[in-house]
């Protein structure tokens, strides 16, 4: 059993598709093939793959994310994985994958993600998706605090703005001690 996992963070229609409710647009769309390729590679190697997706409802009143941003990720289309990434993820068996419905920026906040990783003796996380400086960053900080080694695939993360994206990549390497490839 492998000790590494790929976490695909918020790579869903509402954050990536042109008509998404909170889309990062072309920057997010440009990484689709790379994420799909990583899913295929991890799947072929028998590694664990996690789809961590924002999950809200129109009725939510107290979530800070709902009050800070336009309504997003509350219907099936908005939560669905985007493009080739969805096609690649559909090929992964349920024994080698996990869907995490998250309600905060981090996939670890209020979920069973840490427990599921520990059950599989996973200690190295490869993080991809959007947005580099929001959900990917918050997930990385929690992973760091939980003691995970991390690898970021620079060509498989994107954000709303280049400045935030660049800051997060530097933070991953210089502050969290992660490997950026």
Describe this structure in words.
The protein has 181 residues and is an alpha/beta fold. It has one domain (4-180): Isochorismatase-like (Rossmann fold). Helices cover 40% and strands 21% of the residues. It is built from 9 helices and 6 strands, in the order βαααβαααβαβαβαβ. It has helices spanning 13-16, 26-29, 32-44, 64-68, 76-79, 83-90, 113-119, 132-145, 162-174; strands at residues 4-9, 48-54, 97-102, 124-130, 149-158, 179-180. A 6-stranded parallel sheet has the order 3-2-1-4-5-6, sandwiched between helices. The radius of gyration is 15 Å and the shape is globular.
Which CATH architecture is right? Answer: 3-Layer(aba) Sandwich
- The low-confidence parts are none
Helix content: 25-40%
- Report the sheet-strand fraction: 15-25%
Biggest β-sheet, characterized? 6 strands, parallel
């Amino acid at each position: 059993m492998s000790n590494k996992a790929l976490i695909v963070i918020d790579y869903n229609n509402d954050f990536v598709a042109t008509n998404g409710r909170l889309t990062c647009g072309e920057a997010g769309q440009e990484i689709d093939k790379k994420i799909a390729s990583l899913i295929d590679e991890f799947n072929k190697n028998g590694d664990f793959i996690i789809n961590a997706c924002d999950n809200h409802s129109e009725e939510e009143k107290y979530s800070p994310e709902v009050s800070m941003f336009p309504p997003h990720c509350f219907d099936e289309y908005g939560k669905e994985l985007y493009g080739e990434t969805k096609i690649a993820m559909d090929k992964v068996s349920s024994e080698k994958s996990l869907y995490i419905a998250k309600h905060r920026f981090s996939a670890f906040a209020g979920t069973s993600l840490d427990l599921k990783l520990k059950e599989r003796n996973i200690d190295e996380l490869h993080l991809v998706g959007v947005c580099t400086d929001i959900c990917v960053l918050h997930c990385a900080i929690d992973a760091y605090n939980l003691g995970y080694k991390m690898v970021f695939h620079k060509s498989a993360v994107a954000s709303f703005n280049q400045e935030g994206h660049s800051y997060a990549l530097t933070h991953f390497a210089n502050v969290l001690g992660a490997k950026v490839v």
